[in-house]
Design goal:
This protein is α/β, with parallel strands linked by helices and 471 residues long. It has two domains: 222 residues, 3-Layer(aba) Sandwich (Rossmann fold); 171 residues, Nucleotidyltransferase, domain 5, CATH 3.30.420.240. The protein is 33% helix and 17% strand. It contains 15 helices and 18 strands. The strands form four sheets. It has an eight-stranded mixed sheet, with helices on both faces. A six-stranded mixed sheet has the order 15-14-11-12-13-16. A two-stranded antiparallel ribbon has the order 1-2. It is globular.
Length: 471
């Protein structure tokens, strides 16, 4: 495996920059390439779960600048959740762009009429903006996207922006950077938490601190103190912050310690420690779930059931199928997903799916998707709300099948995100599923449970005909 880091490091040296050992190691991994020349993380992206004052913006900013100079026409989006953060980053990088050694490569710096851009003489450009202002929608041919404050990156904002890289012209593939600190309990941090869960799922239980684990299609780098660390132990500060004390002086850490509002904030933002409830396993283990992926899995026509659910805010909707395979293993999969912009098509899609599979459409009890009940019925959909008892039994059946290894799924990211966001609450002798947070989108699994609950109720009366591709 090769890496694009040496060329970037050499270009940064021309600009007058040097890197510490940890930054050099991170740079090699960030720009690592596969045998075909594509970036190793071009599919899954790069996650930097790193505390404040570690210089992650310095590292990523220098990489981006060097790549813009090395690859003419490279288009970069640098986005933060808040306008203030995006503006501060723009100001810092425009100062860098005005350095004597860097300025000859810069054609213009725009900061009027809401535009914040650094344009290069070779046609490359870095565009800055805030997600809270809708920045990034509608752009295309983007080669690099930097999601700063990724701990408050919502799934909707991610969906709006990731498509911008689909037509990337960067020869080694597009790169997505997710930078942030562990999210607060009130943050909409499902995207960041999911990325961490995916990374931990390939980590062996006996891995040593600082050891590189290879697996999957994303790069995940986390700097953090021990969970039970003394918050004032300077050795733990060194562990969490590789820039302390030679780059980040003691007084800076003491100032941060003094001014952060609570111990929890200090542990999260300065020492990189994730809240316990963000890493506590849910009713379905992420690692076990990933072991059961089968991209070709299909249910037989006579056992297939169809269900619909939506997250609490109904910002999307998810059709899921469940049934038995030819080998009698359970099968669950996302059949079709609609984002916010296509929700008006939901009744039509539902009718097509029901007619194509010759089945009814089931929804979980009190599902947010029941908001479309009238429209679905008007479209001719035979809609059934699953009763609470069978719904909980179906959840238990799915849990048991996962534990026993008798379930298969298609490895879809929506399902994995639902597994990460899933929780359970104890009610009497049962533990029905719930959401880990109000922002967790567990609709795919809730719909799967509804489809499993329907197994003994809805029997197709005639064989379905092919009608459109399996999504």
């Amino acid at each position: 495996m090769s890496t694009g880091w040496p060329a970037v490091e050499a270009k940064c040296a021309e600009f007058g920059d040097e890197f510490d050992a940890w930054q050099q190691g991170a740079g090699r991994l960030i720009l690592a390439k596969r045998e075909d020349g594509s970036y190793a993380a071009t599919v899954g992206g790069i996650t930097l779960a790193i505390p404040r004052q570690v210089a992650k913006t310095f590292l990523v900013g220098r990489i981006v600048f060097a790549l813009c100079v090395l690859f003419p026409g490279l288009r970069v989006i640098w986005t933060a959740h808040r306008t203030r953060t995006a503006t501060n980053t723009f100001r810092a990088l425009q100062g860098y762009a005005r350095r004597a050694r860097v300025a000859p490569h810069v054609a213009d710096i725009r900061k009027a009429n809401g535009e914040q851009e650094i344009l290069f003489t070779n046609g490359s450009v870095i565009m800055f903006g805030a997600r809270e202002q809708g920045f990034g929608r509608g752009l295309d041919e983007v080669g690099i996207e930097v999601f700063d404050e990724a701990q408050i990156l919502g799934l909707k904002a991610l969906e709006d922006m990731v498509a911008a890289t689909n037509q990337s012209r960067h020869p080694h593939g597009a790169l997505l950077f997710f930078m942030g600190t562990p999210p607060r309990p009130t943050d909409p941090g499902e995207v960041f938490k999911t990325r961490r869960a995916e990374a931990l799922a390939v980590q062996p239980a006996d891995v040593e601190f600082g050891e590189v684990v290879v697996g999957g299609d994303q790069l995940y780098i986390e700097c953090s103190a021990d969970r039970d660390a003394d918050p004032d132990d300077h050795q733990q500060w060194r562990k969490a912050n590789p820039s302390f004390p030679h780059r980040t002086p003691l007084r800076s850490m003491l100032r941060l310690r003094k001014n952060l509002p609570s111990l929890d904030s200090w542990m999260r933002e300065a020492l990189g420690v994730w809240d316990a409830d963000m890493v506590t396993p849910g009713p379905i283990g992420v690692d076990r779930w990933q072991e059961l992926a089968d991209g070709t899995s299909m249910a037989t026509d006579d056992t297939l059931r169809l269900a619909l659910d939506a997250p609490l805010d109904r910002s999307s909707a998810c059709f899921v199928v469940a049934g038995r395979r030819e080998d009698r293993l359970r099968h669950v999969a996302v059949r079709y997903r609609l984002d916010r912009h296509r929700l008006r098509e939901l009744p039509t899609i539902a009718k097509q799916l029901c007619d194509g599979h010759k089945v009814r459409l089931y929804v979980p009890p009190k599902s947010p998707a029941l908001a479309w009940r009238d429209d679905l019925v008007a479209a001719g959909v035979d809609l059934v709300e699953v009763k609470p008892g069978p719904f909980v039994e179906a959840q238990q059946a799915i849990e048991q099948a996962v534990a026993e290894g008798t379930l298969r799924h298609r490895g879809q990211p929506e399902m994995l995100q639902a597994v990460v966001g899933l929780a359970a609450r104890t009610t009497g002798d049962t533990s029905p599923w719930s959401r880990r947070s109000s922002s967790a989108d567990v609709a795919p699994l809730f719909a799967a449970a509804a489809a499993v609950a329907a197994a003994g109720d809805d029997v197709p009366t005639e064989a379905p005909e092919p009608f459109f591709a399996y999504s």
